[in-house]
Design goal:
homotetramer, alpha+beta, 6-stranded antiparallel β-sheet
Chain lengths: ~150, ~150, ~150, ~150
């Protein structure tokens, strides 16, 4: 009745842990308040949607840049988790992120896609694009995320 | 009867317009929800405080990175406005921002300082530091803000 | 025999001006020393190659990060020029750039691709990827370039 | 006659190793070609100078942005090394860097200052400013450097 070595996860255990992340993440206080939805969570390929609310805006229709930044950050983090090897640890944080705000939003939901550019030992490099519902790019970013 | 040329503001008009910005900004929907407070608004030198609330956190005590990013973005924007020449226009947006998350917060208010590195014609370059109440740096960023 | 209004360029004049940029750029002193080659220069889609030389390295085989940064910066700038409307001016500079160094190079030429994410009035937002000859990504960046 | 545990360096050994870094770095091929000089190398506080040469320019007088980026990257790296604990390893690389080009240079040497914002376990966060000889800021950056 020995338990499995935590450093030797089966493929199934890895998949189950990975799969649990989005549900855990969106229940954390700030993301629950934002109302972020995970729409796609494939290995290294993630999509989220943020339903529009006036409280997320500057002026009733344009998202505050900080809201877009939070969604980009979180969607990049999900890309990092989406193919993570849980034998390498679970302590995580964003190390750095750079954003370009390329157009102002004009109402409607925010759609975000992230992909992994590369996985190094502790660091995962992601790229993230935020668009409006018509597909127009609003912001674009690169993120360095650490899980160890 | 004659109105002043809008492109020829007196020094007093400039000062009044600048001084109005913080009050307007913190009433916009997202910032009002955050509860951001402007504590210092000198030319090119701004400080803000975000009182801690569980809703702003990942886990009840650590700020979500996106909240810190929003405060950094807004504090940088305030630095840009704090010495702005209103004859140059009032349409504004963050063009780009890069952040480093250098330590996790562990509860308590978030304190943010921004200064202007340089003003070009339409672009203002700012640098922003976010700390906890003990002065420990949590995040550090550079921002390009546009007012035109 | 009046000359054409400089602000009213024909389509052919636009194309000719755009087409002249790569040749001019690679003859500027630093890029000529680097030996940068432009391999593809389609609208918003540019590829460059940097033939390896020991002088560009840290140690005889790994590119100095600053060399990779210079190639990323220049390739992004070429993407900005590759579809530029010359009626909007020709004074140019990089406003901001963020880079991730995701893997160390191990010899061989550096290949760089850039695309335009969005064109605003004076600002062009580009994304750039640098790879080795096997296609492995070495660095990844986003750039804000200004032409006015 | 036991040798010292390599993981237990004396204070003097630490100082000697740290002190050796600038001399080693400026002899690497690319930096030797640039001609970078280290003018100050105090713990977490570094200054460098790049003597102007036409080959480093776009046009005979303005530095190529990639040259400024290389100097910023290297000066940040030196700040990371300047107070490094050599028991934590010596494999190093820049993880990410974000730059703002705030003014064009107009000839003369490039002066660069870097300081450490924070040291985490493997990551060092630095801030770097490049100026001309009159003290005018030309570029400003933040860097995440890894030594492990």
């Amino acid at each position: 009745m020995s338990t499995a070595d935590p450093a030797r996860l089966t493929g199934e255990q890895q998949l189950r842990r990975r799969a649990a992340i989005p549900g855990l993440l969106v229940q954390t206080p700030y993301l629950a308040w934002l109302g972020l939805q995970v729409q796609r969570y494939e290995p290294d390929d993630v999509a989220t949607r943020l339903p529009f609310r006036v409280e997320l805006s500057n002026d009733g229709s344009t998202y505050h840049g900080g809201v877009i930044g939070a969604v980009i950050d979180t969607t990049g983090a999900l890309a990092a988790w989406s193919n993570h090897d849980f034998e390498r640890g679970t302590r995580s944080s964003t190390v750095s992120m750079a954003l370009q705000y390329v157009a102002a939003s004009t109402g409607g939901d925010l759609l975000c896609r992230a992909r992994t550019v590369r996985r190094a030992r502790e660091l995962v490099f992601t790229e993230i694009t935020a668009s409006d519902e018509s597909g127009r790019v609003l912001a674009h970013g690169i993120q360095t995320y650490r899980i160890a």
